[in-house]
Amino acid sequence: MATQTQETQDVQAHGDGHGHHERLQHHFISLDQQFSSAKLGMWLFLVTELLLFSGMFVAYAVYMQWYPEAFAVASEALDWKMGFANTIVLLASSLTVALSIHFIQKGNTKAMITSLSATLGLAVVFLIVKYFEYTDKFSHGIYPGEAFNPTGSYAYLDVPNAVQYFSIYYVMTGIHAVHVIVGMLVFAWLIYRALRHHFSPEWYTPVELGGLYWHFVDLVWIFLFPLLYLL
Amino acid sequence: MSSATAAQGSPAASKAGNQGASTYLNHKKTIRSWLLTLDHKRIGVLYAVTLATVFLLAGLLALAVRAELFMPGETIMSNDAYNQTFTMHGIMMVFLFIVPSIPAILGNFVLPMQLGAKDVAFPRLNLASWYVYMIGGALVVTALLVGSVDTGWTFYTPYSSSGSVSVLYMTLAIFIAGFSSIFTGINFIVTIHKMRAPGLTWNRLPLFVWGLYATSIVMVLATPVIGITMLLLFLERILQIGIFDPALGGDPILFQHFFWFYSHPAVYIMILPAFGIISELMTAFSRQRIFGYKAIALSSVAIALLGFLVWGHHMFVSGQSAISGIVFSLITYLIGIPSGIKIFNWVATMYKGSVWLQTPMLYALSFLFLFTIGGLTGIMVGVLAVDVHLHDTYFVVGHFHYVMMGGTVIALLGGMHYWWPKITGKMYNETLGKIAAILIFIGFNTTFFPQLILGAQGMPRRYANYVEEFTFLHQVSTIGSLVLAAGLFLVLGYMVYSLFRGQKAASNPWGAATLEWTMATSPPDPHNFTRTPIVTRGPYDFHLADEVFGPQHTGDGAGDGAAPEPAVPRKTETA
User: Where are the domains of chain B?
Assistant: First the structure.
């Protein structure tokens, strides 16, 4: 996101004397060029994100193959209803973030702020659901790694290599949750800037990039949900 | 778009540039203006200073390794100290020096200029990459201070998941430094796609740009994988999550797969920009259009893509299946094809050119010899049966030093000499330059050729001790390393001297035909160009480069970049 903060310095140094848009950075020729560069940059960043997650997906696939029984037992322990609820929440948030881009293209700042706030709210709901899932597991001794010691209603999980499943579950959903938190910070920042009328139909690059990022976070969950909860 | 640009040409820029007084180096002078600069040229200089320091430190560690190996038994350090020394040498050279080296220094400085752009697409991201790199570097130093790292640069589990706690800092350092690479890669790809000057089509891109483009693809696709690997290793250490540790049900071979999925493509991150530099040097100093432009450009991209399919050749003896060994071995041979294409094209470029043996060209010629040895020994260790014998021996050490140092570092040196006048506005001492280039060539071969022989005879890598029979070759290698060091210190000496006492450089001392030479002063204006270049020819079309040689091919150098000495013989054909 560091790529698209304000470039006021250069513009001012320039005296802004030759009538280009105040958001046009000095080294670009047109807003179009600047916008498409930013978008390409964001897509490339998402490619790196995809490969970051791919390492974890490979680890999942390998151990799923090695320890199918343990994985079958362990994945039973996850509550698919919670996962499903979160899937709906994230899909809805993808809609709201897409709407926010639509609204700013139409010049409707107010509606954009509303839908950005809705997105932020849905992200919070996602994390609350995740919080209940995590604490339920923690309270029964289901931790990643060597602290793994299932008790009570989850005592049946005390089978060899179930710990691998939960390690991978916590790492994948944990890193995904970090991405959700980053997304929330981005939306808070976007709302702050929108309130100060920084965006217009001519220039709304940060909103577009935030939206792209959020769709990606959503998409990762779309893969995590069936792999972890349903298989 | 094009006409608008040419007309627009920023007023601030033209005011500064035409007087020749204000350059990117002196238009602002405070430390703050350097540390917060968004100028790609200054960021390149920041990287140059940083990376030169890292290279010096890691190089001194290499000398310590060589000193220990001068005699069998304990020479100057304990076995433990030796393990840490070669580990630090490897980590610093690979992750902190060679991976960023050419893209971060010369790529940053030259790429936007060769594209006729004012800057990279994301200047702040560019500066951030330097700071992220510095944080990574600081963590490496922390790792050194809090304990010892003796895993080798490869961090193989379970060794790395059980040893000293400073492995934690080291993995974190590499995770963070990786972002610096990613930022640079993203920046370069977007810059090349979106910031080209009017008329600069893909087939008119200088080959250094093509090299950087291929490199950036690898940076973007491979680096995140080392990131997640280091993160998983980190979690393995603090939580015992059982991904890589066999005692917990994990798989150490999986770590090797992950590690080499990054680290083999990373080898191409290191060498592809070097190919780009050599293409520039060959054509500029042969006064000849590059032979097989498209073949060179596309072979870089081919290497970048094929490079993702060969990681398993590092694991022939790891216990991976025989069939994957065979497949990885075959794909490894394929990489020889695009690499060979390049070598032949460079040789063909010199044929019937008029070769001008200035220092950068000496490095380019060194590169041809050294990289060819490095490449061919690479094919040898890519052969399944041969690799079983050579795996983990000095042959491998010799091989990758021929590629990494004989290839990348030599090309970096050639590139630094070539662009030094542009970067600093000063000429270095040509005689000393030639002496140093020859010293480095001799020193390099004396150091590393014996290592190839030692390895074939069975000397294992990473051992502090060896049997009596190997003494002579080890001593030759150590003496060679001193010659090599002398050459490198000589370079450092006359380069620094030239900053203060060097002759002022002309804007195009080599008579090259790419934009950074033909359109910009030495050192360049803060905005690179005083007007946006409009490109009408290929980067090596010397016969069309009137701005270099004057119109009507009179050869009197009426243009900006009259090559001062000697009178350069040129072909007069008009193709």
Answer: 34-553
Question: What's the pLDDT at B51?
Answer: 97
A55/B45 Cα distance (integer angstroms) = 35
Contact by Cβ (8 Å): A38, B34: no
Question: Whole-model pTM?
Answer: 0.91
Confidence of residue A86 (pLDDT cuts 50, 70, 90): very high
Identity of the residue numbered B424? T
- Which A residues in the span 33-52 are in contact with B, Cβ-Cβ below 8 Å? 33, 36-37, 40-41, 44-45, 47-52
| Domain spans of chain A, in order of start | 27-230
Q: b or e along B64-99 (b: 16 or more beta carbons within 10 Å of the residue's beta carbon)?
A: bbbbbbebeeeeebeeeebbbbbbbbbbbbbbbbbb
Q: Both tokens of residue A126? A: 């996602």
Is the CB of A153 inside 8 Å of chain B's CB atoms?
no
- Does the CB of A14 have a partner CB in chain B at under 8 Å? yes
Query: Is the confidence at residue B13, as pLDDT, over 50?
Result: no
CATH class of residue range B34-553: mainly alpha
With contacts defined as CB-CB under 8 Å, which chain A residues touch B184?
A: none
Closest CB from A40, A147, A171 relative to B193:
A40
Q: Give the mean pLDDT of A149-173.
A: 91
The string of DSSP codes covering B499-541 is HHHPEEPPS-TT---SHHHHSS-SSPBTTB-SS-----S-TT-
Contact between B220 and A44 using a beta-carbon 8 Å cutoff: yes
Q: Do B4 and A29 touch (CB under 8 A)?
A: yes
How many Å apart are CA B558 and CA B575, to the nearest integer? Answer: 21
> What's the complex ipTM?
0.89
Q: Is B248 on the interface with A (CB under 8 A)?
A: yes
Test the A interface: residue of B132, B179, B187, B190 with most A CBs within 10 Å: B190
Which architecture does CATH list for A27-230? Up-down Bundle (1.20)
- The alpha-carbon gap from A31 to the nearest alpha carbon of chain B, in Å, equals 12
Mark which residues 155-174 of A lie under 8 Å from B by CB. Answer: 160-161, 163-164, 167-168, 170-171
